[in-house]
Specification:
Number of domains: 1
Radius of gyration: 20 Å
Structural class: alpha/beta
CATH topology: Rossmann fold
Bound molecules: iron/sulfur cluster, zinc ion
Strand content: 5-15%
Number of helices: 12
Order of helices and strands: EEHEHEHEHHHEHHEEHHHEEH
Shape: globular
Low-confidence stretches: 297-306
Strand order of the largest sheet: 5-4-3-6-8-7
Helix content: 40-55%
CATH class: Alpha Beta
Length: 306
C-alpha cells in the first residue's frame, strides 16, 4: 500500500475518503480536516483565546495537541468528576500530557464545588449519574469558559453522527434545532465549538498514536450500556457496507438545518443565586446544590434536568 501523497509506505487506509497515507501525510491530512471545519463554521481565529475541555481521552488531548501545534492560543480545562479510580487515572494522564507538551491545564474538582462526588450526588438524589454529571459539566464548563473567547470540546464525527441518529429516531426537535458544530454565545452562555466534528474516531485514535499522546483508554464506567454506544455500533455497520455514510449523514444534516430548522426560542434570565442563565426560577445547578445541602435529599423526588 502506497501513500497517495508521497508514494512512500502507507500506514493508514481511510475507507471513507478512499485514500492510504503515510504517517506524516496522515498527520497533515488530520490537521487540514480540522482547520477546514474551524474555518467553514467560523469557530475561532488566530487571536482568540481557546479553552479546551480535556477528559484525558484521545479526542480531547488530541484536539489540544493539534491546536497548539497549529499555533492557536490554547489552555486546557479538566474537570475531576470523582468517579472511583477512573477520575484519578484520567487526571494522571492529563497532568503528564500538560507537563510533556508545556501547556497549561486548569483542574477543577466536582467535590470542591458540590461538596460531594457525582456518584454520591446521584445516590442521594436518586437521579441517574449521567444526568447529574451532564448538569454539573454544562455549568462548570461554562463558568470556566467565562475568561475565554470560546470553549472547544473533543466530540468527533462518530459522536456527532450517533447523537444525530438518536435525535432523529426519537424526533427530538428541540435538540435537532440546537445540534451543530457551533453554539453561539448568548446571554451568559459561552460560545462552544466542536472542531473534530468531521474527524472520525478511527482518525483521532491514529493521530494520538502517531503523535505519541498517552491517553486513558478505558471509558467512564457509567458509559457502559449507553444508547450512544449502541448507535455508534449501528453506524459502524452501515459505514462498513457504505464508506463515507457518517460524513454524508452529518454534513447533509448541517446543510438541511441551516435552511430549514430554526433553533428553539427560549427566554433566559439570570439565576438569582449565581447569575447563570436559566429558564426557571433558579438554575439546575443551584437546585442540585440546594437539594444536596438540605437533609431532604434522599426523600425528595428527582430534580428535573434541563
Ligand atoms: Fe459523566 Fe461518565 Fe455519564 Fe459521561 S458516562 S455523562 S462522564 S458519568
Ligand atoms: Zn444558579
Amino acid at each position: 500500500m502506497k501513500c497517495r501523497m508521497c508514494g512512500g509506505k502507507a500506514e493508514v487506509h481511510l475507507r471513507s475518503h478512499n485514500i492510504s497515507l503515510c504517517r506524516e501525510d496522515f498527520v497533515r491530512f488530520f490537521h487540514r480536516r480540522l482547520l477546514r471545519t474551524v474555518n467553514r463554521f467560523g469557530m475561532f481565529g488566530p487571536g482568540d483565546r481557546i479553552l479546551v475541555a480535556v477528559s484525558g481521552g484521545k479526542d480531547s488531548l488530541g484536539l489540544l495537541h493539534a491546536l497548539k501545534k497549529l499555533g492557536y492560543d490554547v489552555t486546557g480545562y479538566h474537570l475531576h468528576l470523582g468517579i472511583d479510580g477512573y477520575s484519578d487515572r484520567s487526571l494522571e494522564k492529563v497532568e503528564k500530557f500538560a507537563e510533556r507538551e508545556g501547556v497549561e491545564v486548569k483542574v477543577e474538582r466536582v467535590g470542591d464545588v458540590l461538596g460531594c462526588t457525582i456518584a454520591e450526588a446521584s445516590r442521594r438524589l436518586r437521579r441517574p449519574t449521567c444526568s447529574i454529571c451532564g448538569t454539573v459539566k454544562r455549568y462548570l464548563f461554562n463558568r470556566a469558559a467565562r475568561d475565554y473567547d470560546v470553549l472547544a470540546t473533543g466530540h468527533n464525527l462518530d459522536d456527532e453522527a450517533a447523537t444525530l441518529l438518536g435525535n432523529i429516531l426519537h424526533w427530538q426537535e428541540g435538540y435537532l434545532g440546537r445540534q451543530g458544530p457551533v453554539l453561539e454565545e448568548e446571554e451568559g452562555f459561552a460560545k462552544k465549538v466542536k472542531p473534530l466534528s468531521f474527524n472520525s474516531e478511527y482518525e483521532t485514535a491514529a493521530y494520538a498514536f502517531f503523535e505519541g499522546i498517552d491517553y486513558i483508554v478505558e471509558g467512564c464506567p457509567y458509559a457502559r450500556g449507553a444508547t450512544s454506544i449502541f448507535y455508534k455500533g449501528v453506524l459502524n455497520r452501515i459505514e462498513e457496507e457504505m464508506p463515507g455514510t457518517k460524513i454524508r449523514f452529518l454534513d447533509g444534516f448541517y446543510s438541511f438545518r441551516r435552511k430549514h430548522i430554526r433553533p428553539p426560542e427560549v427566554s433566559l434570565r439570570p439565576c438569582p443565586e449565581c447569575g447563570y442563565p436559566t429558564t426557571g426560577e433558579i438554575c439546575n445547578f443551584c437546585k442540585l446544590k440546594a437539594r444536596l445541602q438540605s437533609g431532604r435529599a434522599t426523600l425528595s423526588p428527582a430534580v428535573r434536568g434541563p
